[in-house]
C-alpha cells in the first residue's frame, strides 16, 4: 500500500526512521510529520527543554540519565544498554517474582513487586 500512496509511505518512513529526539508544533503540524529538533529557529526551545528534562531526571534519580547524557554517542549508549541487560539477567536470577503466583485474579493485595524472602 505504501508503494502506491506517497502520504502513507512518508508516514511509514517517519516511524521506521525515527530520530532519538523529536519536537513538533502540533498547531501547525497535527500529524507530527515535521520534526523541528534540528531546526535552528527552535534551538533555544530545544536547549531549554533538554535542560528541564535533565534536571527532572537527576532529581528523580532516573536510571536513564546516563543514556540521556550520551545520546549522541552510539558506543557509550551500546555499552550502557549491554550493562542494563546484564543487570536485568542478574535480577531475574536473584528475585523470585510474585507474578507467577497470581496469574489470574486481582493483584490488589499484591503490593510488592518481588518476594523479599526470595533474595539469595
Write a structural description.
The protein has 120 residues and is an all-alpha fold. It has a domain at 71-99 and 114-120. Helix content is 45%, strand content 0%. The mean pLDDT is 81.
Class from secondary-structure proportions:
mainly alpha
What is the N-to-C succession of helices and strands?
A: HHHH
Overall shape: it is extended
List low-pLDDT spans: none
Task: Tell me the layout of helices and strands.
Layout: H1 6-16, H2 43-59, H3 65-69, H4 74-94
Jot down its keywords:
120 residues; mainly alpha; 4 helices
Brief account:
The protein is mainly alpha-helical and 120 residues long. It has helices at residues 6-16, 43-59, 65-69, 74-94. It has four helices and no strands.
